[in-house]
Structure formats: C-alpha cells, structure tokens
Write a structure and sequence with these properties.
Distance between the termini: 44 Å
Number of strands: 3
Structural class: mainly alpha
Oligomer: single chain
Largest sheet: 3 strands, mixed
Shape: elongated
Helix content: over 70%
Strand order of the largest sheet: 1-2-3
Strand content: 5-15%
Radius of gyration: 25 Å
C-alpha cells in the first residue's frame, strides 16, 4: 500500500473522530436533526477508516494451505463492508432522522451549529487534501472517472468519496439550518437530513459496485494485457499467443495464465527455456504479476 493512501486514511480517521464529537455535542444542545445526521455520518466515516486499515493489514497475511494465493482480496471485502455501512448506518439513519424531524418540526438557530460546521469544514478540507493528493498519484494522465474505473486499490477512491460526501453534507446541513431560520420554515432542517442520507446512499452504491467488481475478480487493464501479449508474441520460440487470462488478488498481486503455441521444432528443453525467459520478461515489465502459469502447445496439436 502506498504511503499516500495510508496517510489519507489516518488523516480521515483523525478528522472524522474530532468532527463527530463536536457535531454530536452540538446536536445534543440544539436538537438539530441535520446536525445529528452529520454526527452519525462522521462516526460511520471514522469506523470505516479503521475497517480499511484492517483490510490492508489482513490482505498482507502470507499464503497458507487454505489460501494458497494469499489473502489479498481481504482488502476488497472490507471495502465492500465499508460501502454497506455508509448506506445502512450513514444514509439510512440520516433519512430516518430527517423523516422523524418532519413529523415534529422545530427551527434551530444556534451559534453552536455554525461553529461546529465551520470547524468541520476545516478538518474535512484537510482530510480531503490528503485524499486528493493520494488520488492524483494514481491518475497518471488519466481522467478522474477513468482512474476510478481502472484502479485496483479501493482505499484511495473510498477515502476520496467519503470526504467529498462529507463536504457536500456539511454544505447541505448549513443551508438547511440557515434557511430554516431565515424563512422560519422548520421543515427545511429535516429535508436537509434526508438529502444528506441520499448523498451517502449514492456514494455507497457506487463504492459497492466498484468493490464488487474487484472482489469477484477483475483482470488487468487492457493496456497491460496488450503489453503481456506483445512480450510473449515477440519471443522467437512463440508461434501464437492464444488465451491470456488475468485476475487481481490485490492491487499489487496478479495471476496470469497464458495459452501459447510454440514453434514445432522446439524440444522439451527449448520450451522450458522459453517459459523461463517469458516469465522473467513479463515480471521485469510488470512486477505486480506474481503468479504466472503457461500452457504450452506445439504446432502439432489442434
């Protein structure tokens, strides 16, 4: 795991823990539904950071008899759990609080709310800065959406999306409280809470979709796959590269299987030498490919 990603997670945990405490204190004294939703949101984000770190640690366990390819997919599993928690606890509780407040509306205007929101925006901004720095390291000239789609490290974009949702939630909470007082409309605070819940549900759905793809087994990017086929096809012992299958076990642990048809004049020793040579060339160019299995066929085979 890159240093930038780990720093982003620790920054998010520290910021969310401090913010959650102040939001919940403010919600207790003011009774604001939007503020309570924001407090719940920050608590969920704090726990999610811990789960991401747990996933990183579990994914680094060495292979054993039951898991011969290692535990790399632990990272993808815990990323999926984080998405479920954002949806169920963050989004669900926020919508529930909003609906409850609409049933018993009150106008909340307190210096507590504005102080806490200002404090939260500063800390979320710092956390967002670390998250965007880590994300930019992965972009490598790609667009943001393409980077997310091609990324095999869910920690980076999960923290980024959490922080983005947090900043949007803070803006919605501020507008709900301010406009509720300005227009003397007690329903706006509850509406703000529901909107925060919808934002979290959308973010959670996207994260769950990305984590699911990684968990069930995504292959390498098309450019990497083309590079592998090019390396294999350029070897003088290779007549034809047939199937090329890959799967990520973790961001830096990839399984590769190659179905290759070798030149007909090659003996067993020549094929063995070619296989060794291909494995070295592929690993030199793509060090993340840790497991290589080559199925060798001669030209005499159908």
């Amino acid at each position: 795991m890159r240093t930038e990603s780990r720093t982003a997670i620790f920054a998010a945990i520290a910021g969310n823990l401090a913010i959650a405490a102040t939001k919940l204190v403010a919600a207790f004294f003011t009774g604001s539904s939007a503020m309570l939703s924001e407090g719940i949101h920050s608590l969920v984000d704090t726990g999610n950071g811990g789960l991401l770190l747990l996933g990183v640690r579990q994914s680094q366990k060495p292979p054993d008899a039951d898991h011969p390819f290692g535990h790399g997919k632990e990272l993808y599993f815990w990323s999926l759990v984080v998405a479920i928690l954002i949806f169920a606890l963050g989004g669900g509780m926020s919508v529930y609080e909003g609906i409850t407040h609409l049933s018993h509306p009150q106008v909340h205007h307190s210096i507590w709310n504005y102080l806490v929101l200002s404090f939260a925006i500063i800390f979320e901004g710092v956390s967002f800065f670390f998250a965007i720095q880590a994300f930019r390291k992965e972009m490598s000239g790609q667009g943001a959406f393409q980077t997310i789609r091609s990324s095999k490290d869910p920690t980076t974009f999960t923290v980024l999306f959490e922080d983005t949702a947090a900043l949007l939630g803070l803006l919605v909470a501020f507008l709900g409280i301010y406009l509720g007082h300005l227009l003397n409309n007690p329903y706006l605070d509850g509406v703000a809470s529901i909107i925060i819940g919808v934002i979290l549900a959308v973010v959670a759905g996207f994260l769950a979709y990305e984590s699911k793809g990684l968990l069930i087994g995504e292959g390498v990017d098309p450019a990497v796959l083309a590079s592998i086929r090019s390396i294999a096809g350029a070897d003088p012992a290779v007549e034809e590269v047939r199937k090329t299958l890959t799967m990520h076990f973790s961001p830096n642990d990839v399984l590769l299987t190659l179905d290759i048809r070798f030149q007909k004049h090659l003996k067993a020793e020549g094929i063995a030498a070619a296989v060794t040579r291909l494995e070295k060339k592929i690993r030199d160019r793509h060090p993340e490919i840790k497991h290589i299995f080559i199925e060798a066929k001669s030209l005499y085979e159908v």
